[in-house]
Q: What sequence folds into this?
């Protein structure tokens, strides 16, 4: 049940209240959602069985179809995204793949960003080779050129905002207008912003995806994905999940729902620290460039202010003077900040995208996407800003003062 449909005073509760109370049910019972450890469910008669089976993800028939603990987490996610419905998946890539499989058939065409996540690039290529769809990539930084990539067979315009790892901001309202004018769906990977940090559906997107591994889970201890949107769209995605079986188990769904209760607090805190660190890094002599939409100098700053809430995300990136060798020395000099992939955790993490999230793009692909090989992506956690800065400053001291960027 969405916030707008909630009975009572008619007032829509804020995101922190919605995160804790979900749909706002007044029923009494367990304060925490029970974990139902059952794959299958029994029924008194055939009619009852058919009702549960036909209920789809909201029913309790067989776990691959739907499950009470999954449904509770999915409802809370939809509440925060202000979506009609949502689905959980076993990973973020399972979620994105299910959307593409639901919306595409052989002969269809996709327009996506050069700056898309590396796994999305692999999915596009896999589908082109095995499922018969085709795709073209456009530069997120050049919206004037997007329309030229569209064809009569284009069915999806897939974007990320902010993008991974250079934090390019996509004007989602503009992207939606373009997609809809060409009879295509706008799908948006909103992982970096989180369901409380941005609402692509309100800006015209047709489907929103998240890697729930990141800010949604928030503790670096689970792997999951989510798809949210109008009930009709989600119904088609559910059929893909049912066929391929990428369903998380009830215990994982419970972890996600538990984590959602603190999501607004965690996002607000990490976003504030990320802005502080990005601002300090701009003045450091060992840093050639900082990528963060919260900076007034960022090309997408004005759009980000308009379409992002609770700040500008927990992730920033910076290009170290001296290129790959210098960036490696910085990464290996960090003590408090862990050298690890992923993002959105309570722990701060740093990685080299050229060797992790965007390795499979290759040198030329990264160049097209505007990703320097000396780029460090920093996912800011809940540690004190001064402690994180001390760690960064000490690691950056390893870079010689005379170092210059190497391309």
A:
């Amino acid at each position: 049940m969405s916030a707008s449909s909630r009975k009572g005073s008619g007032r829509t509760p804020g995101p922190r209240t919605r995160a804790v109370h979900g749909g706002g049910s007044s029923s009494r019972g367990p304060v925490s959602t029970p974990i139902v450890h059952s794959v299958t469910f029994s029924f008194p008669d055939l009619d009852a069985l058919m009702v549960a089976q036909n209920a789809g993800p909201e029913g309790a028939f067989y776990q691959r179809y739907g499950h009470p603990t999954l449904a509770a987490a999915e409802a809370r996610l939809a509440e925060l995204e202000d979506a009609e419905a949502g689905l959980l998946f076993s990973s973020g890539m399972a979620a994105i793949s299910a959307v593409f499989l639901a919306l595409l058939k052989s002969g269809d065409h996709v327009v996506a960003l050069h700056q898309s996540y590396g796994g999305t690039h692999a999915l596009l290529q896999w589908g082109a080779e095995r499922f018969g769809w085709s795709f073209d990539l456009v530069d997120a930084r050049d919206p004037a050129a997007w329309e030229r990539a569209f064809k009569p067979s284009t069915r999806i315009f897939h974007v990320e905002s902010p993008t991974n790892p250079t934090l390019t901001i996509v004007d989602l309202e503009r992207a939606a207008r373009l997609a809809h004018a060409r009879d295509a769906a706008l799908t948006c990977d909103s992982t970096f912003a989180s369901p409380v940090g941005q609402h692509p559906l309100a800006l015209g997107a047709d489907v929103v995806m998240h890697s729930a591994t990141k800010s949604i889970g928030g503790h670096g201890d689970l792997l999951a994905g989510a798809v949210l949107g109008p009930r009709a769209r989600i119904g088609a995605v559910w059929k893909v999940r049912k066929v391929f079986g990428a369903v998380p188990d009830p215990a994982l769904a419970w972890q996600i729902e538990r984590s959602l209760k603190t999501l607004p607090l965690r996002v607000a805190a990490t976003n504030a620290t990320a802005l502080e660190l990005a601002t300090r890094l701009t003045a450091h002599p060992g840093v050639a460039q900082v990528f963060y939409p919260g900076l007034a100098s960022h090309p997408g700053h004005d759009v980000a202010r308009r379409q992002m809430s609770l700040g500008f995300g927990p992730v920033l990136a910076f290009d170290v003077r001296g290129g790959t060798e210098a960036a490696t020395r910085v990464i290996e000099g960090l003590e408090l900040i862990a050298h690890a992939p992923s993002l959105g955790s309570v722990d701060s993490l740093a990685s080299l995208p050229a060797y992790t999230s965007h390795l499979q793009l290759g040198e030329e692909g990264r160049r097209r996407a505007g990703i320097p090989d000396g780029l460090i992506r920093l996912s800011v956690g809940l540690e004190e800003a001064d402690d994180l800065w001390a760690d960064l400053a000490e690691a950056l001291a390893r870079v010689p003062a005379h170092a210059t960027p190497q391309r």
User: Anything to note?
Assistant: The chain has two domains: 3-260, 263-396. Confidence is low (pLDDT under 50) at residues 1-7. The domain at 263-396 is CATH 3.90.1150.10 (Aspartate Aminotransferase, domain 1). Residues 263-282 form the longest helix (20 residues).
